[in-house]
Amino acid sequence: MGEQPLLELMQERIAIGLEREKTMDAIEGWERTALLMLKEGPTFHFIVKNNTITVHDGDIENPDMKIQSDEETIRKLFLEEMSAASALLKRKLKVKGSASDLMKIRHIF
Questions:
Q1: pLDDT by position in tens, the chain (length 109)
Q2: In whole angstroms, how large is the CA radius of gyration of the chain?
Q3: 63: which of 35, 69, 71, 96 fits an S-S bond (Cβ 3.0–4.6 Å)?
Q4: Torsions phi, psi for 22 (to 5 deg)
Q5: Angle, nearest 10°, between helix axes 6-17 and 71-78?
Q6: 13-18: long-range contacts at Cβ-Cβ below 8 A with a sequence spacing of 24 or more?
Q7: Count of CA atoms in the C-beta half-sphere (13 A) of 51
Q8: pTM
Q9: Domains in the chain, please, with CATH?
Q10: The dihedral of CA 93, 102, 33, 10: what is its sign?
Q11: Is 80 left (phi over 0), alpha (psi -120 to 50) or beta?
Q12: What is the pLDDT, as a whole number, of residue 109?
């Protein structure tokens, strides 16, 4: 039995996160796109709109935020085995975007 495909894992964990009040408060009325680029090559993108978050395979044009990481780190973030703050400190996660967007992202992961 292999590990769950990353896209599936992210979709599942986002659905769980969306049941949390603090996540809902963080994204209320917020519209953003984020591109996730993995060291291993694959790209994914997130769309925050209409008080929900969706994640899809592939690139997106002109994202509001760019996130660079590796698959292992992203898995750990989504499984809550690592915090975004510690991933950033260890340089396992690089995020480019506005400061206010970065604060919001912390509530999502």
A1: 568 999 999 999 999 989 999 888 888 999 999 999 999 999 999 999 999 999 999 999 999 999 999 999 999 999 999 998 899 999 999 999 988 888 777 666 5
A2: 13
A3: 35
A4: -65, -30
A5: 30
A6: 13/78, 13/79, 14/53, 14/54, 14/55, 14/108, 17/53, 17/108, 17/109, 18/52, 18/53
A7: 8
A8: 0.89
A9: 6-108 (3.30.1050.10)
A10: positive
A11: left
A12: 58
- 27 is written with which tokens? 């994204």
* Length of the chain in terms of residues written: 109
Query: CB neighbours of 22 closer than 8 A, spacing ≥ 6?
Result: 107
Q: DSSP secondary-structure letter at 30? A: -
Three-state secondary-structure class, residue 27: helix
Residue 89 structure tokens:
């400190």
Amino acid at 2: G
Amino acid at 23: T
